[in-house]
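Self-study notes.
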Amino acid sequence: MKKNLLLTSFVFLTLFANAQKYKGLAMTPPMGWNSWNTFQTNISEDLVKQTADLMVAAGMKAAGYSYIVLDDGWMAMERDSITGDLVPDPKKFPHGMRAVVDYVHSKGLKFGLYNCAGTKTCAGYPGTRGYEYQDARLYASLGIDYLKFDWCSSDGLNAKESYTTMSNALKMAKRPIIFSLCEWGNNKPWAWAKEVGQLWRTTGDIANIFDGIKTFDTWHANGVMTIVDMQDSLRKYSGPDHWNDPDMLEVGNGMSVAEDRTHFSMWCMLAAPLMMGNDIRKMTNDTKAILTDKDVIAVDQDVAGVQAFKYTDKDSVQTWLKPLQNGDWAVCFLNRSSTPKSIQHDWKKNTVYDSLSAKEFNAVKNIYKLKDLWTKKESGTTDKIFQATVPPHDVVLLKLSK
């Protein structure tokens, strides 16, 4: 008996050590919609169905958005007293969660849920600590495709161990589920999470402000530019099937059109997951135009999977460069100031070699055509000095093609 117990323990530990995430689920950054930024815990079956319908009807699905992810607040305040399973809130989801999942799948979309590595979620609902394998089996039985896993109520836990345990649980549940680590970057997940999940948060929560910090009672959220400042040194950790995640999008949530355009442009330059956080039922034409711009999305979804880097930073104007497939480049001139800025860029005097991607930009040896991705205008070639005026808190985003 003792020998069998030791053998069982050895087999389990071997499985635990060797288990890895499902491979190949996110070869480009995941795209979808998450409920938290707008709705927090005020979610429901009707909201999910309306969002799914509009993602199809309004062209979001066609633009590449695949996932609907319910964030915190989908479950009841207590687990099932007999089975210990998580239970969907019966008032919010009167037909159960499987019916919601099936409806989303019927629209050709994928579905995700949220939980937490700690004993409780950030909103005080039941967390997963001690229930990792049971919860993973439940998610697989529901047919979900995506799990966002937060880090509240985690005092005393080791982040790498906790997230590895949940990753192994998902693998053993035998359903391919994207694993999104929402650990806020506190324990440098970029250094260890490549084999654990498909994406990991690099910062605390985002706020619907262009720059700075938004303070709440016991915590704070970061403005868009504040988050951008945290990303440049992390680019070497990101790539196909393992993405740096600077948090969900605030496009359509109260910033100006220019600021929304800049926000979206920079997330695409950073090869970030594009998880919409707005109320799709009420979005303006400007918001829809930004979120569904296929040329800009193509920068994010480029199969080379290289994150942009900051090339210059002068007089409040930053120049960001992103190598693309087939020797093309994306260039973003970002005006962080509150006044318009005139720029002049001599391509031939700015030869660049990116050691990470082993890509070279050399306008002396090659002529590149310029296309402004937002205006859709052809903007000449790299034979001439590029001149433009960048409005306040706005960008000029170019694709350079040989």
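Second protein, same conventions, sequence then structure:
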Amino acid sequence: MTAGQTNDRMEGARPATVAVLDVGKTNVKFNAATASGAILETLSVPNPVSQDGPWKHHDLQALSGWVFDTLAYLARRHPLSTFVSSGHGSGGVLVGSDPDDDDGTALPMIDYEQALPDEIRERYTPLAGSFFDRGSAMMHGATHQARQMFWMQQTEPRAFARAHWFLGVPQYWAWRLSGVAVSEATVLGAQSHLWNVPEKHWSPIVRSQGWENLLPPFAKAWEAVGTIRPSLVKRYGLPGEMKVLAGIHDSSANFYRYQAAGFDNATVVSTGTWIVALSGKTPLNRLDEHRGMTCNSDVHGRPVGGALTMGGREFTHIAGRDDDRPNADAALIRQMIAQGTMALPSFGDDDGLFPGSAGKGHITGPQPVDAAERKALAVLYTALLTIECLDALGGSGRVILDGSFLRDPLYAALVAALRPQDDPVSNLDTYGVASGAALLARHGTRAARAAIALEKPPIFQHPPAELPAYVRRWQAMARQSAEANFNALRKRSIQ
């Protein structure tokens, strides 16, 4: 039994358990976990989206019923002592004064992937401040909480004026359960355009638009902001003494998991819809907003360098949605390299690390002839995107790979073959966000480092002699094409 497991048993005869709500863009998961991060049970549901109203939005009223019913179900099966939510940073919720008024919202929660009206985008851009005020470049669609607030304010001024708070996704659920509204550094540091992480102050747009009173006081991610509201305790039979923590950004929760395990100096690469590489060692002056780089925050409010690209969506563009092969074929990857078949960015709506490349992705060289070859090329392409993220962040040292890409062992094998100097390791656990969020329940009281299982990636057997030249050529072509696209866009904007 590890020290973490021993600590789990300090509250009563049964292990104290943490309820972790993980809100993703596409799916929502509810987990019962130990305070040492072990997942005991998981339930999930699609994150519903409605087309009604002034914009496409998440149906929080429908989701609320599932959240409360599922929490009650888990409470009957596990001795829940703490609730914490994690969530993506690309959305926020404008709420009224009463968390029991339907879903509590003052206006529907904007779906960040929809197109932004041209007028809103053009008026917003000059208000958004410097790179560190924003934490990122201007990303696609309606991404960024400040941009969503501006859209709401301009389109629905009366409803906006009646609102009480604007909350990040995890803090919305903390408010629904406890009635206490807070802000939190990792969520606001996830490209919200509301918070300057290095200087620790609100971005200029907050003052210029008069939003100061809509953004509540800060709490640390691990802080208990209250307990379950009595009305919910009575209606759903929830434990009245259950603590509600402030909550955390999803990628930051995964990063915290490695911090809690003692890997403070590692670069963590999380994979899924996005490839998100985070490093606390990257100097701030190295961050380049034009290359998909970000300035995030860790749980302590310290700056964290980031590099991100929508790798999961790009993978699907190349491999195809009808692909049902479990893993890529190493022989076909070697064939793609030997014959010079390359996928060049970017296939999705986001530039990623190659400015001006959105929607311009293409395959050069002999074309893949079937699903197996497309799968091989997709794995090779996402490994190259990962190397680009690591190159952007700079430095060397331990690299930790995790997330859904590791389901195909050739992804980690390729990254290890391309960056052997970084001593890469893999974590095959697919519940990193939930585990990291659960660890918050014992922040500051943990008797030992959190246990985590890391292993060496498999070896990419018999790499072709052309591999180093292939990588150099891919990097040169991808960067050259991106530079030409970026210069053309900049020229058109000047004209």
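Instructor comment on the second fold: Residues 134 and 193 are 4 Å apart (CA to CA).
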